[in-house]
Design goal:
Layout: E1 2-5, E2 18-20, H1 23-30, E3 36-38, H2 41-74, E4 77-81, E5 88-93, H3 95-106, E6 115-116, E7 121-123, E8 125-133, E9 137-147
Parallel strand pairs: 4-9
Antiparallel strand pairs: 1-2, 1-3, 5-7, 6-8, 8-9
């Protein structure tokens, strides 16, 4: 029996996959629980269209993320802050500060949870910060911290 999965089913497949299952498994388990529907011609066509649309969206998202990563790699982020004579900052540069600067650079909001910063930056100089962008793309951005005045 062919079915189209409506939800992810562990050990069987992901949503919108077309799967061949035994008659009993389909009729007694998958269909009554709303995990699948019988694979009629119209349902199969709709599932294929939805699957194609998802793939296109993922491709667009990955392309956008790679463009953002390339831009972040080529353009460092500059911060001018107050610092002591020893080079220690009076405050710190946090992931929220970096996300705000990235948002200004790319022209859209950037979530601070995508910044992989173990500790806030508290020293002057150049620092490499890892970030994760949607679509599984990761990049590094150079953060340059300079003393004010």
């Amino acid at each position: 029996m062919k079915v189209v999965l409506k939800r992810d089913v562990p050990g069987l497949g992901r949503a919108d996959d077309i799967k061949e299952v035994s008659e009993g498994y389909g009729r007694n388990y998958l269909i009554p629980r709303g995990l699948a529907v019988p694979a009629t011609e119209g349902v199969v066509k709709a599932a294929q269209d939805l699957h194609k649309a998802k793939e296109d969206q993922i491709t667009r998202q990955r392309d956008r993320a790679q463009r953002i990563a390339a831009r972040l790699k080529s353009e460092p982020l500059h911060f001018r802050v107050k610092a002591g004579e020893s080079g220690r900052l009076y405050g710190s540069i946090t992931s929220a500060d970096i996300a705000e600067a990235i948002g200004r650079l790319i022209g859209s909001p950037f979530d601070k949870r995508q910044i992989l910063l173990e500790h806030p930056i508290r020293d002057l100089g150049s620092h490499l910060v890892d970030i994760k962008i949607e679509g599984g793309v990761r990049a590094q951005v150079r953060v340059i911290v300079e003393a004010e005045g």
